[in-house]
């Protein structure tokens, strides 16, 4: 191959692969973006072409006037942010203990986390549906936040404990020797080192809560707590066999924007978080 | 005498410290553990209990104990076995294809020296995007008159023109699997890339100097050294694929016999209010996931031992 022995080590195969990966990752995303920019008529009358014949932003205007969608967007943000905050607090405490302290039951905690990461979410639909009705948690924010917390804690604990293990904790003592109080030492030395890990765990938790669907459609019945994925699945226009695709596409683009922004800003950290917990754990 | 007292004191202090550390450790993990256990163990016990009753929400007072009756009904129902088979097919096919494509992606990404940020961003988008959104995108892409798949890939022998992708079982299954593979391959490739970057370059170079071909280097050096990463990736993806629900709900609503085990469970509980039967299905789903995890762990352990034997 031409690139053999080069510092770059990139042959034509790698270039082709590079292009293929980009097409793979972006094709359906660009497709849904294009559908969202087509007028409604173009998506219902047999027009398989990729680019819109007529470009329009009418779908976005319509979707941003749709109260059910806006309400669901609010629910999604609220529920995801609260679940993330709680998960990060609980996971940070647990991960600190796991990485730093020697205590009995450490292995048990890690095993529980492993078991729950493998737990089939749908198994909870029946019992939670029944329990939440009795406990008046059905169709409420806490009714979704509590199970989301459960299912994001394992990933958050792994990511954070893998991260905390790398922190040179002796630096805290060194600072104390240099005259800092233990609180100062913790705040000035450890917190800045731990913050990126905590942040990564927060992003992964947010993604989970933003994405979750099964519980969102099973444990809600009105727009009071329905999140965007659930609301979108109920998004049928006048004809149930022909949902308004162009508007759905616009809604899809709107809920994808926060994800894309987070990915653009923090791609390096997200990759580190995803792989550290899994590969080293 | 004094030294003995001193050592005893030191010992006491040391054990005091261990006890204190034990206590602090348990206190710190308690909130997380309590939430995780309460929201999974308690409902599962509830499911186990409810599964022994004939319990329909539409007639809540008629709650008769049937023992293992629900399980007998389910296990003798061909729909249950059909759905289980679908789930197993989806799991095996998607994970196998993802492993191959994901590895190829990881090999390319490993060699890319420029535009790493761009690559990482692109690869994270399918991971971060809502499954419901990707399912809608693919459903529309595969739709007969309005999607690009029919227009672009009609030259492929098994596609042809004017294919109704939701018209029969295998076409619909294919569309569902494409959406699943699209969404999760990037995650697989990230895990494999992390494994790949832990394989020492020196070993690969040494094999090259010794005259090993590309295939030999791959099979003899790279893959064996990535065993742990591959195992973790396969284990997680397999269990994840077995829970498939969102794509099926959006793309076919289970039509053309494309239901998965998760979908069947959901439908019994939420659409038909069969809480007893649904709980039995929940228990069976939970047990099958446990069984798959057990089989995979066993399988990998055998492999690990063999690998150690070779070394």
Order of helices and strands of chain B: HEEHHHHHHHHHHHH
Radius of gyration of chain A: 23 Å
Structural class of chain A: mainly alpha
Tell me the distance between the termini of chain B: 55 Å
Q: What class would the helix/strand composition of chain B place it in?
A: mainly alpha
Instruction: Name the chain pair with the biggest interface and residue counts per chain.
Output: A-B, 98 and 99 residues
Oligomer: heterodimer
What's the N-to-C terminus distance of chain A?
Answer: 38 Å
Mean pLDDT of chain B: 88
Low-confidence stretches of chain B are 304-311
Could you list the spans of chain A in which at least 5 consecutive residues all have pLDDT below 50? Answer: 1-7
Helix content of chain B: over 70%
What is the helix tally of chain B?
Answer: 13
Q: Beta fraction of the residues of chain A?
A: under 5%
The main sheet of chain B orders its strands as 1-2
Instruction: Tell me the major beta sheet of chain B.
Output: 2 strands, antiparallel
Q: What average pLDDT do the residues of chain A reach?
A: 87
SSE topology string of chain A: HHHHHHHHHHHH
| DSSP, total strands of chain A | 0
Molecular shape of chain A: globular
């Amino acid at each position: 191959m031409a690139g053999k022995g080069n510092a770059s080590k990139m042959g034509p195969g790698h270039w082709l692969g590079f292009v293929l990966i980009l097409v793979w990752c972006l094709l359906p995303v660009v497709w849904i973006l294009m559908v969202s920019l087509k007028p409604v008529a173009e998506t219902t009358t047999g027009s398989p072409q990729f680019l819109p014949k007529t470009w329009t932003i009418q779908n976005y205007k319509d979707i941003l006037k749709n109260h059910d969608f806006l309400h669901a967007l609010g629910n999604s943000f609220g529920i995801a942010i609260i679940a993330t905050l709680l998960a990060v607090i609980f996971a940070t405490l647990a991960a600190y203990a796991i990485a730093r302290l020697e205590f009995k039951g450490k292995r048990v905690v890690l095993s529980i986390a492993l078991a729950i990461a493998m737990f089939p979410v749908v198994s909870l639909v029946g019992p939670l549906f029944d329990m939440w009705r009795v406990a008046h948690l059905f169709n409420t924010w806490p009714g979704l936040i509590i199970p989301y917390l459960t299912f994001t804690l394992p990933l958050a604990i792994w990511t954070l404990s893998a991260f905390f293990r790398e922190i040179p904790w002796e630096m805290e003592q060194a600072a104390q020797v240099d005259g800092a109080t233990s609180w100062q030492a913790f705040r000035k030395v450890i917190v800045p080192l731990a913050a990126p890990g905590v942040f990564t765990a927060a992003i992964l938790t947010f993604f989970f809560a933003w994405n979750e669907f099964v519980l969102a459609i099973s444990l809600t019945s009105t727009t009071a707590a329905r999140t965007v994925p659930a609301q979108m699945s109920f998004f049928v226009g006048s004809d149930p066999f022909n949902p308004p695709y162009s508007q759905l596409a616009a809604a899809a683009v709107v809920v994808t924007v926060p994800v894309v922004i987070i990915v653009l800003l923090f791609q390096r950290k997200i990759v580190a978080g995803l792989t550290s917990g899994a590969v080293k754990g | 005498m004094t030294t003995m007292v001193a050592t005893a004191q030191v010992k006491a202090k040391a054990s005091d410290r261990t006890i204190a550390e034990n206590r602090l450790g348990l206190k710190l993990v308690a909130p997380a553990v309590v939430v995780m256990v309460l929201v999974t163990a308690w409902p599962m016990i509830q499911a186990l209990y409810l599964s022994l009753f004939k319990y329909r929400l539409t007639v809540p007072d008629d709650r008769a104990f049937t023992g293992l009756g629900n399980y007998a009904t389910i296990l003798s129902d061909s729909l249950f076995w059909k759905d289980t088979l679908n789930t197993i097919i989806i799991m095996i096919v998607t994970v196998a294809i993802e492993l191959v494509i994901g590895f190829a992606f990881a090999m390319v990404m490993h060699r890319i020296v420029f535009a790493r940020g761009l690559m990482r961003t692109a690869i994270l988008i399918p991971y971060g995007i809502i499954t419901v959104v990707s399912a809608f995108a693919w459903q529309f892409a595969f739709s007969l008159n309005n999607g690009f798949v029919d227009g672009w890939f009609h030259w492929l022998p098994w596609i042809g023109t004017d294919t109704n992708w939701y018209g029969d079982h295998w076409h619909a299954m294919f569309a569902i699997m494409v959406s699943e593979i699209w969404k999760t391959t990037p995650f697989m490739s990230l895990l494999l890339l992390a494994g790949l970057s832990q394989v020492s370059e020196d070993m690969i170079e040494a094999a090259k100097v010794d005259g090993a071909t590309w295939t030999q280097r791959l099979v003899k050096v790279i893959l064996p050294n990535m065993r742990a990463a591959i195992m973790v990736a396969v284990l997680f993806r397999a269990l994840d694929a077995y829970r498939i629900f969102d794509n099926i709900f959006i793309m076919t609503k289970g039509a053309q016999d494309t239901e998965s085990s998760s979908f069947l469970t959901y439908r019994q509980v939420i659409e038909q209010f069969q809480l007893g039967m649904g709980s039995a299905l929940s228990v069976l789903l939970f047990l099958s996931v446990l069984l798959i995890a057990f089989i995979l762990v066993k399988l990998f352990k055998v492999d690990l031992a063999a690998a150690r034997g070779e070394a």
